[in-house]
Amino acid sequence: MDKAQVKTIILDEISKTKTAIEHYRELTKPISPNDAIGRVSRMDAINNKSVNEASLRQAEIKLNNLNRVLSKIEDLDFGICLKCKQPIPVGRILIRPESLLCVNCAR
User: Fold this and answer.
1) What are the tens digits of pLDDT across the range 78-105?
2) pTM
3) Chain-centre distance of CA 83, in angstroms?
4) Nearest Cα to 10, choosing from 80, 103, 98?
5) Distance (Å, rounded) from C-alpha 47 to C-alpha 20?
6) What helix, strand, coil percent values describe the chain, rounded to 5?
């Protein structure tokens, strides 16, 4: 496995995730009761806010996992499943660099 390539992918994914987090934070700002948008539109806006808050939480978890993986990239056990201790396939690491488990253990 080429750790330099994986590191580049992780750094790129961290950058994308930080951008997504900023976007979700903007979308989850409180809805002012002074805004005259109508009752149905306000309910829709509140529902959308809830969906965006869930996306924000998922993006923050992903960022934490990416940072954790990046900090361990030079370790000897990098790319080893935390659960079964078998190597994680390179394809999985390249697609989901934040993965700490192999496909079987992640189920």
Assistant:
1) 889 999 999 999 889 889 988 889 999 9
2) 0.79
3) 21
4) 98
5) 19
6) 65, 0, 35
